[in-house]
Specification:
Rossmann fold, alpha/beta, four-stranded antiparallel β-sheet, binds adenosine-5'-triphosphate, binds magnesium ion, about 35% helix, globular, single chain
């Protein structure tokens, strides 16, 4: 599904070049569950950003389903991003003035989905995540775990191939963390999505099939797990 070939991402900060990624080669298969772990400032978010086509590498290739993301035109890349990649963030990033249902519906706006169909899909996805009775709540009226579930619903409603999560449990207590990880794992298994989770939390990373450790802009895949599932 993904083939990363000698990927580099350099940021130029006033003549000071930061080598966020410095020669990353990595394959991610269809329906893989990969955790990306590593100390702060080592390029985890940068790598996730490239996987999601939110930015382009300085050099090297990020190939997704045979397409070189760095070489796609802006329009093609935006289209691919909208349909193939779902994003989940540490801080949920919900729109505070929209209800849970409206936040999820918003993910369908780039598509030719009618209003009634958007509402149907949003409610169905909220229901799948156990939030049927919270559809009309504003984010501020929900707990952290519930807000993250709404954010996951927003990422999933368009039926993406890949779910990319950046520290999705970073703002949650331990019990809620375990609940969200169990939920992501269930969705990964039931929906056959490819799941990539950036985390500094070893108890989260342990759930993955493989752990990519990123340090100094380079990646080493530490273990191949054979979990009984
Ligand atoms: N847009 C940018 N402009 C300049 N420098 C950047 C930019 N994005 C990231 N960097 C730098 O690249 C390096 C890697 O950043 P990145 O956000 O990928 O780290 P991270 O591993 O996700 O860290 P954290 O665990 O703190 O989230 C850092 O030195 C960071 O300052
Ligand atoms: Mg980060």
């Amino acid at each position: 599904m993904y083939q990363l070939i000698d990927v580099r991402k350099y940021f130029d900060r006033g003549g000071n070049v930061v080598r966020a990624l410095d020669g990353v080669s990595l394959a991610i298969g269809e329906n893989d569950f990969l955790a990306i772990q590593g100390p702060t400032g080592q390029g985890k978010t940068t790598l996730l950003t490239l996987l999601g086509g939110l930015d382009r590498p300085s050099s090297g290739q990020v190939i997704f389903d045979g397409r070189d993301l760095g070489a796609l035109g802006e329009g093609d890349l935006a289209e691919l991003r909208a349909e193939a990649f779902g994003f989940v963030f540490q801080t949920f990033n919900l729109i505070p003035t929209l209800t849970a249902k409206e936040n999820v519906e918003a993910a369908l706006v780039p598509f030719r989905t009618g209003k009634a169909e958007r509402t149907r899909k949003a409610l169905e996805t909220l229901d799948e995540l156990g939030l049927a009775d919270r559809a009309t709540h504003l984010p501020g009226e929900l707990s952290g775990g519930q807000q993250q579930r709404v954010a996951i619903a927003r990422a999933l409603v368009k039926d993406p191939k890949v779910l990319l999560a950046d520290e999705p449990t970073g703002n949650l207590d331990e019990d809620t963390r375990d609940e969200i990880v169990a939920l992501l794992e269930r969705l990964w298994r039931d929906r056959g999505i490819t799941l990539v989770i950036v985390t500094h939390d070893s108890s989260v990373a342990r759930r993955a099939q493989r752990i990519a450790i990123i340090k100094g802009g380079r990646v080493s895949v530490r273990k191949e797990q054979a979990l009984a599932r």
